[in-house]
Design a protein that fits this description.
The protein is α+β, with helices and mostly antiparallel strands. The protein contains 4 helices and 12 strands. The strands form 3 sheets. It has a 6-stranded mixed beta sheet, covered by helices on one side. It has a 4-stranded mixed beta sheet with strand order 9-6-7-12, with no helix packed on it. Strands 4-11 form a two-stranded antiparallel ribbon. A hairpin with a 6-residue loop joins strand 2 and strand 3. Helix 1 runs antiparallel to helix 2. The two termini are 31 Å apart. The structure holds fe (ii) ion. The site of fe (ii) ion has 4 residues, from strand 4 and strand 9. Fe (ii) ion binds next to strand 4 and strand 9.
Length: 181
Amino acid sequence: MTVISPVRTRCPADLVTAIRTATQQHCDWQRTAELVADELRLHLPGADILTAAERAGSADGYQCHVLHAEPDGSFSVTAMVWRPGQVTPIHDHVTWCVFGVVQGVEYEELYALSGDGSHLSEVGRAQNNCGEVSGFAPPGDIHRVRNIGADVAISLHVYGADITRLGSSVRRIYDLPVAVS
Ligand SMILES: [Fe+2]
């Protein structure tokens, strides 16, 4: 994944203000994700928040464009662009995340780590359609995301950290067998 940082904020001011207000309630991660999801539903931008070139995606893999990094490091907003068939590794995250699909469909597989850490089990699947917003918070946030549609998929992601400083939202990539139940 390529992380492409902005030179300035590219998010609508109403969205940034709403996320800031939600995070400044200083709730736990799960509740913060719920509050931010409520705001993203109200203020979800269109895919045209990206340029036409950005919306085209890349043959090199899914792209991550940073649209806003809050100066105090409390959150950042990115746009992910997936061409058909592009997929993440199985991973979890350093912080809470809220995402909204603004074009296409994202398909998600959810996993749980076994007690001895030797393997994963699939515990759920979700299809996230255009206009839908979801949120989650660690722990229990191991997943893999892919574009199974015929068109480019685009989603906005809000993370509870400045991923331009961290370099990534990923805590760990899981290269483990997946148990078939
Ligand atoms: Fe993820």
